[in-house]
Amino acid sequence: MSVRKSELLNMESTITLSSQPVQNRVREIGINPNYWYPVAWSHQLKPCQILPVVVWQQAIAVYRDVNHQLHALENACPHKGVVFDKGEVFETHLVCPYHGWEFNGEGECVKIPYLPPEQKLPCAKARNYPIQEKYGIIWIFPGDPSLAELKTIPDVPEYNESEWLIVEIPAHFQAHFSICNENTMDVFHGFLHRDIQGWFNPILTQLKAKKNTVHAQYQVSYRGWLSKFLNLNKDENQVTTRTVSITYNYPHYHSTLEGVSSLYLMRLPVSLTETRSFSLLFIKLRLPKWVVNLIRGQLSQIIWHFLFKKFLDQDIEMIESEQQTYLANPHRQYVEINPAIIALQRVNIAQYEEFMQQSELISNHKN
Ligand code: FES
Ligand SMILES: [Fe+2]
């Protein structure tokens, strides 16, 4: 049977899929905390409000003071350990709900309401965390604060370009972050989304892995009403083949569908069995620019609820099922055939091990 030249090129540029065992310990690893992690959308926290968040098993009270400044303190009062998020904000201070001790943004106790004024305040300090706000997201640095300035938040150039429509996508998974991350790298699961006309015939054409990053390119075909809506096809029955690029730059993702969309997926690992994500999806629509500008906010909400949430709900079901089966038997053997997933597992394990080794060196040095 003759093979057309274009098909031959595709075949030649395909990366071999071959069976490899999965290292189960990737489901037990922790994070490297020396990166910025997203914890909330900016609009979730108004001035004088407190929000409890968890960044990899660390409970943190985030508050916005009367001057709109953000602060993040360990969510445990140094007096008796009561959670701060049930307290209140007084000007720039956080007031504990139990005895009313006041703490500044550095976490230092600055007032005890019932302590006679002539008496010195005890030395009571809550841990504080570097915090910042960018792209409508609140970010915390849970690791060594002296490294916070050296590390950057992912660059999102589309954020200020008006031709893109931004869709904010929150997600919550009862699963380890490695399972969630593998779902994002795994373009071969278009089968799951077939009823909502996702994508088909994926081919892995490029894979580059470094210490902190995995970059994969897939060639993917699209057909149906959704691809027409996204300007991929002129009519529903036409098939269009495009390149999907996915870059995992520990611990977050950037993925693009050639000329159509750009997705920044910011991951928040919460615990061994819980993960959140804060994603910014940028899409270009067929609609006239003035229409998009007029109903930008509503359009984002509609697109999220009626289009992309369906994809996410299907993914959540698979991801949580994977976690449950793993928990029922952590020694069960699994087989993976996508080398991009294996590369991703290596990066996640290496980042955790690197952090553990650094922590060990520091503690040996102190002893
Ligand atoms: S426990 Fe916070 S003031 Fe007493
Ligand atoms: Fe999916």
In terms of topology, how is this protein built?
Elements: H1 5-12, E1 20-21, E2 37-41, E3 50-55, E4 58-64, E5 70-74, E6 88-90, E7 93-95, E8 102-103, E9 109-111, E10 131-134, E11 137-140, E12 165-173, H2 177-185, E13 199-209, E14 213-222, H3 225-229, E15 240-249, E16 252-257, E17 261-271, E18 274-283, H4 289-294, H5 296-328, E19 335-336, H6 339-366
Antiparallel strand pairs: 1-19, 2-11, 3-4, 4-5, 6-7, 7-8, 8-9, 10-11, 12-18, 13-14, 14-15, 15-16, 16-17, 17-18
Fe (ii) ion binds at residues 189, 193, 311, 315.
Would you write up a description of this structure?
The termini are far apart. The relative contact order is 0.16. The strands form five sheets. Strands 12-18-17-16-15-14-13 form a seven-stranded antiparallel sheet. The protein has a four-stranded antiparallel sheet with strand order 6-7-8-9, with no helix packed on it. The longest helix has 33 residues, at 296-328. It folds into two domains: 5-30 and 153-352, Naphthalene 1,2-dioxygenase Alpha Subunit, Chain A, domain 1 (Alpha-Beta Complex), CATH 3.90.380; 46-144, Rieske [2Fe-2S] iron-sulphur domain (Rieske Iron-sulfur Protein). 24% of the residues lie in helices and 31% in strands. With 367 residues, it is an alpha+beta fold. It is globular and about 80 Å long. It has six helices and 19 strands. Helix 2 (177-185) packs antiparallel against helix 6 (339-366). The structure holds FE2/S2 (inorganic) cluster and fe (ii) ion. FE2/S2 (inorganic) cluster is lined by residues 77, 79-80, 82, 96, 98-99, 101.
